[in-house]
Amino acid sequence: MPELTIGRMAKLYGLHRSTLYEAVERGRVTAGFNGKGQRVVELSEMIRRYGEPPHQPEGVRQNPTALTDTHPTPGQAVDNVALLTRFDALLEVVKEQRDELKALREEVHQLRRLPAPSRGSNTPSRSGPSAASEPSVASSEAPMQESKERDVTSPRSFADIADRFAERIGKD
User: Fold this and answer.
1) Is residue 62 within 8 Å of residue 46, measured between CB atoms?
2) Other C-beta atoms within 10 Å of 87: how many?
3) Taking the CB of residue 99, how many other CB atoms lie within 10 A of it?
4) 128 φ/ψ sector (left φ>0, alpha ψ -120 to 50, else beta)
5) DSSP one-letter code for 114
6) pTM of the complete model beyond 0.70
7) pLDDT digit of tens for each residue in the chain (172 aa)?
8) Do the Cβ atoms of 113 and 106 come closer than 8 Å?
């Protein structure tokens, strides 16, 4: 006899799954496990306890996987248009964020090229063995050029970068 999972057997008999689980726990119906570790009940056991499954109309499929209709209903067509519109808006947001990420990476790259702050400045200085072991940027490097994309001068200090970041955060 075929074995069905408790959920499918409950659907076949028009019962709730919890009813079958309770019947198994109380010993009214015996159940085992299939190769996937799912609890299954033999059809003969269900017939013994509950009788033959209720007769289903001929139009009802025994296969739980229903065929899908390939033609959308008018409501679905509207939903598809709304989904496409939402998708386009989200795609635009992703593009903007990608551009902002690129600009931020460029600023980080510029920050790494800046000389270390002097000990007498207001910004916190580095201390400890890691600060001494890091190579400093040679003062003979050419000054940073203006950014061609934004028509803004390159930052000269960490404070410049912090100010730019604060302005960006304030715009959002």
Assistant:
1) no
2) 10
3) 11
4) left
5) S
6) no
7) 788 999 999 898 989 999 999 999 999 999 999 989 999 999 888 888 888 888 655 544 455 554 455 555 666 666 778 888 888 899 999 999 999 999 999 999 998 888 887 776 555 544 444 444 444 444 444 444 444 444 456 777 888 888 888 888 876 5
8) no
Which residue is associated with the tokens 């790494």? 112
Element (H, E) at 23: helix 17-25
Query: What is the H or E stretch that residue 33 is in?
Result: strand 32-33
SS3 113: helix
* Per-residue three-class SS string for 73-107: CHHHHHHHHHHHHHHHHHHHHHHHHHHHHHHHHHH
d(CA 60, CA 62): 7
Burial code of 129-164, b = ≥16 C-beta within 10 A, e = fewer? eeeeeeeeeeeeeeeeeeeeeeeeeebeeeebbeee
Alpha-carbon gap, residue 79 to 87, rounded angstroms: 12
Q: Which amino acid is at 125?
A: S
The two structure tokens encoding residue 71: 């033609």
Angle, vertex CA 77, rays to CA 73 and CA 82, nearest 5: 145
